[in-house]
Amino acid sequence: MLIDLKQQPADALLALIKLHNADPRADKIDLGVGVYRTGQGETPVFGAIKAAEKKLVETQDSKAYLGPEGDMGFVEALMPYVFGKDSPSMGGRIEGMQTPGGTGSLRLALAMVKRAGYKRLIVGKPSWPNHNQICADLGLEVLEFNHARADGTTDMDAIRTALADAGEADAVLLHGCCHNPTGIDYSNAEWDEIAGLLAERKVLPVIDLAYQGLGRGMEEDAYGVRRVLAAVPEAMVCYSCDKNFGLYRDRVGALYAMVADPADLAKVMSNAHALARANWSQPPDHGGAAVRLILEDEALTAQWLDELDQMRDRMRQVRARLAEAGKTGGVDLTPIGIQNGLFSIIPFTPEQVQAMRSEHGIYFAGSGRINVAGLTMGNIDKFIAAVADVTG
Ligand code: PLP
Ligand code: TYF
């Protein structure tokens, strides 16, 4: 019976939004869920998206079904940004489809991993919790390795060991850039080595690219994806437009598969299409259509890239200010300056996380992950003082 089902825990990050909302203090700070915020603390719709939506309303003449692959114009317009304009892997070896956000793409990719007979998914820890949740739901065994060292650098020895023990029955999930939750990314030299190891061990790479453009730049953030794809015969890329176009609730993403022989692409993608049909039939159209209109229009593309630059610049400023604070109480904020994207982890104890909430009205995940975009030039000094207070 339905009532025999067991109570499930609420999503911890979404629960945090409620805690923050219920706090009456005017100077409270929300560093929880991963959405970008401006210096005024807002998450506005991009100007380029507003313009594209206006155009969409005026020109869209049908909302008839498109099929499980969604809007292929959207899927293809993104490809030069992800894979590079002159990439050899673009030569017929890659095909994509639209998905409901990066989550939908991950769900499909990992179901493909399972369906293709892979036994394990190797994942660096900590990772975005949904990676493990999707694997648990699919019955895919997860093998974890340590992603980062305490000093804010990647634990290359751990991934070397994990890959040395891996083989053809394994897939590995890698964050393309702006690692969630640590903000600690592989350097280009590390990607070079990882690409070589993946090829040598014949492990299938699944690259989660949910924050392209929020780290170092659109091109810079694609280094890992492109480097890995140049080294291996097969791979999948799970893309989200929900951060870099600010579309979050519109659920805009894409799944790309690369195979060695273009003749195999249709067969491979027919499986992804079948899985999509069994899950959501077709992806929501609106956000993807707006992204396509932007990417097909030079002026709108320039406007979007400019808005993305402003986001990235602001996050770099916040990071620089935190790094400048250096040793603060019992923690060192310096590594935050070289980390990327929305997130960094400060090694708070659970008691210190609680004290930040109760004594200072500052809310972030229990892991100590902060959303740096929740900090502004107006509240950052309060934050630094609170960190010194609870860790000192
Ligand atoms: N992958 C990572 C690492 C994420 O942090 C997120 C969440 O924001 C996603 C994928 C999924 O994003 P989306 O909201 O597009 O489903
Ligand atoms: O990690 C984050 O904050 C983002 C947003 O169930 C998010 O990835 C968080 C929780 C969730 C869905 C998205």
From TrEMBL:
Taxonomic placement: Bacteria, Pseudomonadati, Pseudomonadota, Alphaproteobacteria, Sphingomonadales
Name of the protein described by the UniProt record: Aromatic amino acid aminotransferase
InterPro entries: Aminotransferase_I/II_large (IPR004839), Asp_trans (IPR000796), PyrdxlP-dep_Trfase (IPR015424), PyrdxlP-dep_Trfase_major (IPR015421), PyrdxlP-dep_Trfase_small (IPR015422)
Cofactor(s) it depends on: pyridoxal 5'-phosphate
Taxonomic source organism: Novosphingobium malaysiense
Summary of subunit composition and partner proteins: Homodimer.
Protein's GO biological process: L-phenylalanine biosynthetic process from chorismate via phenylpyruvate
SUPFAM superfamilies: PLP-dependent transferases (SSF53383)
Domain Aminotransferase class I/classII large: 27-386
Residue stretches in coiled coil: 301-328
Keywords: Aminotransferase, Coiled coil, Pyridoxal phosphate, Transferase
Any Pfam family matching the protein: Aminotran_1_2
Gene Ontology molecular function: any one: L-aspartate:2-oxoglutarate aminotransferase activity
Superkingdom of the organism of origin: Bacteria
Similarity-based family: Belongs to the class-I pyridoxal-phosphate-dependent aminotransferase family.
GO cellular component: cytosol
